[in-house]
Amino acid sequence: MPRSSTGARNHAWTDPDCPVARTLDLVGDRWSLLVVRDAMDGARTFTEFQRRTGIARNILSDRLRKLSAHGLLAQRTASTGRRLEYVLTDSGRDLFPVLLALRQWGERHAFEPGEPHSVLVDGEGVRVPDLAPAGADGTPLTADSAHVRKTGPNP
User: Fold this and answer.
1) Contacts (Cβ under 8 Å, ≥6 apart) of 8
2) Number of Cβ atoms within 10 Å of the Cβ of 127
3) 110 lies in a domain?
């Protein structure tokens, strides 16, 4: 049976050999990435996630459970000792470039020119520059210049 990087069993990978498909199986729904986004922005409690996203309680419970089961979030007792909170794991933090790429695509394609939207800034308050994937030699990568190499028993 296929397992995630955290060892959690997954009986129904969409495409077991494709990293993109497996990632989408784990976080490819609208709510999961918004929960991860808000965790990166400091949300910790069920109430904070619900307030920020407007998610229905049952859906939020499901997403928090799934993200925790797959090792993207960890539960811990809050400093008050009265409730649980959720914190990003290293795997969850590794989604930062994914969310950054989605944000930057959205800034370019999901808004009309001049339409206001939030902006991601660094610690100095400067807008985060656009991601620019590059090959090992520094040459810019595009959808036309990068290709998938199949591995495994039937490459």
Assistant:
1) 69, 70, 71
2) 10
3) no
- Amino acid sitting at position 71: G
**pLDDT tens digits, 52-86:** 999 999 999 999 999 999 999 999 998 888 888 99
The reply to whether 126 falls in a domain is: no
Domain that holds residue 75: 19-96
- The CATH number assigned to the domain holding 60 equals 1.10.10.10
* Cβ–Cβ under 8 Å, residues 68 and 74: yes
Rounded-to-integer distance, Cα 76 and Cα 44, Å:
10
Percent of the chain with pLDDT over 90: 79
For 61, the token pair is 């419970």
Q: What is the pTM of this model?
A: 0.84
Whether residue 64 is contained in a domain is answered as yes
**Element housing 73 (H / E):** strand 73-77
Cα 71–56–84 angle (5° rounding)? 45
